[in-house]
Amino acid sequence: MKIRNLVFGAICGIIFFSCSESGGGKEVEMDRFVTDLMGKMTIREKLGQLNLPSGGDLVTGSVMNSELSDMIRKEEIGGFFNVKGVHKIYALQRLAVEESRLKIPLLVGADVIHGYETIFPIPLALSCSWDTLAVERMARISAVEASADGISWTFSPMVDICRDSRWGRIAEGSGEDPYLGSLFAKAYVRGYQGNNMQGKDEILSCVKHFALYGASESGQDYNTVDMSRQRMYNEYLAPYRAAVDVGVGSVMSSFNLVDGIPATANKWLLTDLLRDEWGFRGLLVTDYNSIAEMSTHGVAPLKEASIRALQAGTDMDMVSCGFLNTLAESLKEGKVTEEQINTACRRVLEAKYKLGLFSDPYKYCDTLRTKDVLYADVHRAAAREIAAETFVLLKNTDNLLPLEQKGRIALIGPMADARNNMCGMWSMTCTPSRHATLLEGLRSAVGEEAEILYAKGSNIYYDENLERGAVGIRPLERGDNQQLLDDALRTALRADIIVAALGECAEMSGESASRTELGIPDAQRDLLKALVKTGKPVVLLLFTGRPLVLNWENEHIHSILNVWFGGSETGDAIADVLFGKITPSGKLTTTFPRSVGQLPLFYNHLNTGRPDSDSNVFNRYSSNYLDISNEPLYPFGYGLSYTNFIYGDMRLSSDTLSANGKLTVSVTVSNKGDYDGYETVQLYLHDVYAEIARPVKELKGFKRVFLKKGESCDVQFVITTADLKFYNSELKYVYEPGEFEVMVGPNSRDVQIKCFKAE
């Protein structure tokens, strides 16, 4: 037996050594290659690798051929972005590898945020599926399509935590919770990068925006951020760390200040934390023109800003050309070192090496793949399926939904037939003419069994100038306000039921789309009130990229289905849910307020020394408002179903958790309704007493279970002391023995509570 064990141990040792040598060998090979290449490069060529200009294609419609081509030939750029089309990208790559001195291939970037030509729901919607496998599947398909069209690098995922829905870019993230955000961050990276980016359909992922961008003051985009280190570590940094831990190849710094210093030049953030503490070894790129914007911040003009960004750990300068045009002079002046330039250049070249571009510069320029994978039927089917998972049923009085496919159904609202608005923000690579509208989707679903009547009903806003800013690059044809309303009411009176397609248009959320008022826009609000006055049952299909204030709607509308922006297959996906082919299962990952005055609003807040004892009345000398409850309209984790899930009593395996032990939490969930469906069972913890104040509850686990009608299942969670850890006042990651509360329920509000003691 001893001999057998010795032999086995020896074999394992040989295998381990071989694997280590293999991995190490690749690193050695890469290091040798890059070192040899850099030995041939001039300072200007090294600085060229640090320069990332925009091709302008997606904005202007044409590539800046003369300027961009000349820079490529002179090796003054390391890559480019905003160019669409494999043939154009091939031509630019050919210049780099056939008409330049060193023949260094280019990185080709794009904002592939929630799909390429097949568009999936916006990221906030995707998070409401609570389905990490679906998100990974989305990212995989996105990478397959983008890579077939020449793209090797996506500026995604955005993992910024946001608790203020005035900020438009809340639409681009995964909500307010760091635990859930971390799981989705990993899913995105795995989907994009695949098996270490070795395949032709695997691309470089870039996690953004590092860091804290979602905490911009006043919910105003590009605004400043100011918070303690303790809060950073406990509430905001986890998703970035998760992306690094799973091997993300690149990171993008944010626009905002961190400790009064622009993130792009913050050495503590980019080097001390990201590289030294977390071990990130990849490529660090700025956001668009952020080095140049340091001048506007009042921190430094371009030349000095470039010095500070390089010294902080930035590798690649997006758009500003500060590195390319100023660092050579700063080197001569002794303000930067050649070693610092070499370090940044090496990281850019290593990213290209890891992508396999040196062995095959045209890896992503296989024109035969393009026609086979772009907007492929199998991708569209996946997008339709995933979109249906993201819809959140907010209200359903008297089980009005699902609708029967009979009679006359009036579809009314500016989003009903808005083909170019179905995909939401960050979808410039799609072709709207290939997508069905909601109207087309509903008519296709009902066939001859029902009649779908249609009226636009209203403009987005009454005011034309306000609407012009709201619709952005996706204009909608305006009509006379009164005539649109009159047409809608005539149509409604002919119908048995009204389906109102209202809310935001696509460009009302996303980058630079901050709002101070979060209600449904005025013209649509008045339309909705007029439809309610008809006495007909009304279903609200809510299009939005953020939580909205829906007090009136919640009180007066029979059913509210939040469909977000569902992507290119929105019309068919909504029809699937509206008519009961699929039971809605989405759960909110961001809190819906009762008033803008509550913002920022989030479930995992700290308690006060004077908590509100009764949310229904004003309590003097308690932490509350004179005019409104502290409670949100719809809490984090909330979402209804067509069926009825009943939770049994929560059970604990013990009332004590030992230091190295486990505690099992169990609850029986039963489907007592008439439909099969998914339920997301959620587990929360509360540290009752700790060195620093801890949140009233924190999500620590969830299970997404499918139950047929009449079926039950026992859902179990295992808690260890790792789930109890937090960053204390010294930023040490610890848990403290003592009393804890464990909570289980269908959302963060409606939970059962039990206590246990951690030893």
Give me some keywords for this one.
759 residues, alpha/beta, TIM Barrel, Rossmann fold, six-stranded parallel sheet, six-stranded mixed sheet, 33% helix, 17% strand, globular, disordered N terminus
Q: What do these coordinates show?
A:
Helix 16 crosses helix 22 and helix 19 (481-493) runs parallel beside helix 20 (522-533). The chain has four domains: 1-31; 32-370, Alpha-Beta Barrel (TIM Barrel), CATH 3.20.20.300; 389-578, Glycoside hydrolase family 3 C-terminal domain (Rossmann fold); 643-758, Immunoglobulin-like (Sandwich). 33% of the residues lie in helices and 17% in strands. The model is unreliable at 1-22 and 59-64 (pLDDT under 50). Strand 26 and strand 27 form a beta hairpin. The protein has 759 residues and is an alpha/beta fold.
Task: Report a brief summary of the structure.
The protein has 759 residues and is α/β, with parallel strands linked by helices. It has four domains: 1-31; 32-370, Glycoside hydrolase, family 3, N-terminal domain (TIM Barrel, Alpha-Beta Barrel); 389-578, Glycoside hydrolase family 3 C-terminal domain (Rossmann fold, 3-Layer(aba) Sandwich); 643-758, Immunoglobulins (Immunoglobulin-like).
Percent of residues in β-strands:
15-25%
CATH superfamily of the largest domain: Glycoside hydrolase, family 3, N-terminal domain
As laid out across the biggest beta sheet, the strand order is 2-3-4-5-6-9
Q: What is the straight-line distance between the termini?
A: 40 Å
- Give me the count of strands: 27
CATH topology grouping of the largest domain: TIM Barrel
Largest sheet: 6 strands, parallel
Helix count, DSSP H or I runs of 4 or more residues:
22
The number of distinct structural domains comes to: 4
The percentage helix is 25-40%
Low-confidence stretches: 1-22, 59-64
Q: What gross morphology would you assign?
A: globular
Provide the gyration radius in Å. 27 Å
Structural class: alpha/beta
Second-tier CATH architecture of the largest domain: Alpha-Beta Barrel
